[in-house]
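Hi Y.,

Following your request, here is the sequence exactly as I used it, all 153 residues.
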Amino acid sequence: MRNVRAAEDTRHARTGKDGAFYSKDGTLLATVETFTSNVNYTNAKYSVLGDAQEHETANTFAVTLTMSQVVVEDDQFIVELMNAMESQTMPVWDFQGSLLGRNESEERVVYRECIPSGQVDIQNIAVGDVIKRSWNFFVNRPPHLESQLSVAR
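Below is the corresponding structure, written out as tokens. Let me know if you'd prefer a different format.
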């Protein structure tokens, strides 16, 4: 085997049960079934005289956050969203994503100034399914890595 680290560190592999999603004040958002954060980089292309190869340089990046929420009862998020649509003043939220390591270390990322972006489910109902609400956010501040996982040997 060429990659011995892959086999010896499997005890530190994490699953969804080790993750959590929190509000700004640290309240566990217990009805969130999934969450995903992504960064998308857009580079500027350029070419120079005497060089047939096209080049890129770093330009901008955008961070998005998506969550799926099990609808158990009306919650503060949907109330704030509905009130925002009536007042035409969009809400702004801060979130924290957390992943707990086997050795009690934690990866925690803070997402600030998140606003609804794209499609947000108001009601999404199907016979025989658990009712869920999908949320999409644009993150207006760069994510901040509060802490990271470690592997103790």
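The mean pLDDT is 88.

Thanks again,
Q.
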